[in-house]
Design brief:
Elements: H1 3-9, E1 38-39, E2 45-46, E3 49-54, E4 57-61, E5 66-67, E6 71-90, E7 96-104, E8 109-118, H2 125-165, H3 185-188, E9 195-198, E10 203-204, E11 217-219, E12 224-244, H4 250-256, E13 268-271, E14 275-280, E15 284-285, E16 291-296, E17 306-308, E18 315-317, E19 325-333, E20 338-344, E21 351-357, E22 360-366, E23 378-385, E24 393-398, E25 408-414, H5 417-420
Parallel strand pairs: 2-16, 4-6, 5-6, 14-19, 15-19
Antiparallel strand pairs: 1-23, 3-14, 4-13, 6-12, 7-10, 7-11, 7-12, 8-9, 8-12, 16-25, 17-18, 19-24, 20-23, 20-25, 21-22, 21-24
Length: 430
């Protein structure tokens, strides 16, 4: 099936993020998505949610997506919590070098690296995009486990303190307040690697090379390099994304290189609060056979990030929220098993996410059996409660992957245990 035919089959209400880093430019493998998946429920109701904006400032570099020459792809100054998402293809007939440089603006400063996920250069866009997300969420899991362990130790110490004080005076009960979640592990965890003191020199974040000639990653013609990383800068730093020739000095090139214009898709800019937390307002309690859903990444939603292209001053929309980390917090209850699955509603999709439940984080490839899926009605199960004892508060994390399409839907569906196991219902004699 050609691209235009595929686009024509997608319902009008969901054909939204098919530009830039989506279906218009990916390398497709027709046989990969042939595995049989469950069908998404046709009847369901939408869950009401509260959306919280928080997190780092995002520098998004994806336009021009296909680079036909050397130059500066994006540049801006940032301090505090930062995140960079980049997605570029070498569109020339020669080898080029992609580099991302972080440099202090005026004074010496510390930069602490957080979660990082950078794929290997590849002509298979889905493969390298998933690889970048696998690496990012793997580091996220490691940092979360360290932070969770520290929180548990702190809670245990506070409990011991309260036990010692309860015979002296009763504790004062205070009404708990809803707090905006803080996922800035790179701020609080002192054991993270690659903490660098910048003293007027650059720090190149793809190879961590101190040699300005060797820094960067080489892309062969038609190869994509995509990735995302978090950092914290005590003072302002300049972040530069550039494409140059293999032997170029990236420091010199960052000062002399031509600023490349955006292509027909204005997907670059600087955006504040690049974490979105969806809090499902009420516990999910379903009757047998019922389904509820949450759509994310839709163009008619009000939570697409708006920012400014620092190179032109043009106001831009992050159409697809690439580089945004989504946190879906929900609670399930009831007697029936609950299946939680993801549905690629907008087209081909290949990524990685995570589920936090019962004090543990588990990584999930999306989908789990093939490199990608995206016929519109496929449903890939990411978690299952086989009894009411497994219900409770949970969290699902994901981020829109490069080369994929949006929106997606998250489904919660109740089933009997026999239905869940594919056994069907046995009739009993009266």
């Amino acid at each position: 099936m050609d691209i235009m035919t595929a686009l024509w089959k997608i319902p009008e209400r969901i054909a939204i993020a098919l530009a830039g880093i989506g279906v218009l430019s990916g390398t497709f493998l027709p046989g990969v998505a042939e595995a049989v998946y469950k069908k998404a429920p046709e009847e369901y109701r939408d869950v009401p949610v509260t959306v919280i904006n928080s997190g780092p400032t995002l520098l998004f570099s994806d336009s021009p997506e296909t680079v036909y020459g050397t130059g500066i792809l994006y540049k801006d100054v940032i301090s505090g919590e930062g995140r960079v998402f980049f997605h570029h293809v070498n569109g020339t007939k020669e080898r080029l070098k992609l580099a991302i440089m972080v440099r202090p603006v005026d004074k010496i400063t510390y930069v602490t690296w957080g979660c990082r996920g950078i794929g290997e250069p590849n002509k298979d866009f889905f493969a390298t995009a998933r690889q970048s997300q696998q690496r990012y969420f793997k580091e996220y899991k490691t940092n979360w486990e360290k932070a969770h362990q520290q929180e548990a130790q702190k809670a245990a110490a506070e409990n011991i303190k309260l036990q010692k004080q309860k015979y002296r005076k009763p504790p004062v009960r205070q009404k708990p307040e809803e707090e905006i979640p803080d996922y800035s592990f790179y701020q609080t965890n002192e054991n993270l690697p690659l903490t660098t003191l910048l003293q007027g020199e650059y720090s190149e974040v793809l190879t961590q090379s101190r040699n300005a000639h060797k820094a960067g990653i080489i892309l062969k013609p038609d190869q994509l390099l995509t990735g995302m990383f978090d950092f914290y800068a005590r003072r302002p730093v300049e972040v530069t994304v550039l494409m140059c020739r293999p032997n170029d000095d990236i420091e010199k090139f960052s000062l002399e290189g031509e600023i490349l214009p955006m292509d027909e898709h204005p997907l670059r800019g600087t955006y504040e609060k690049a974490d979105l937390t969806y809090v499902v307002k009420s516990p999910i309690r379903l009757k047998r056979g019922e389904s509820v859903a949450l759509a994310m990444g839709s163009s008619d939603a009000s939570n697409y990030l708006w920012g400014v292209d620092a190179l032109t001053g043009i106001k831009t929309e992050n159409y697809g929220n690439y580089g945004v980390v989504y946190h879906v917090r929900y609670e399930t209850e009831g007697k029936y098993p609950v299946s939680i699955g993801i549905n690629p509603w907008g087209g081909n999709f290949s990524g990685t996410g995570a589920v936090i439940a019962k004090g543990k984080m588990e990584l999930k490839d999306l989908p789990g059996r093939t490199l990608y899926f995206g016929e519109g009605d496929e449903l890939d199960e990411i978690r299952r409660h086989n009894s009411h004892k497994e219900a409770g508060q949970e969290e699902f994390l994901w981020s829109p992957p490069g080369a994929s399409n949006l929106p997606i839907r998250l489904f919660w569906t109740s089933e009997s245990l026999s239905e869940a196991l594919g056994l069907g219902e046995k009739k009993t004699k009266k």
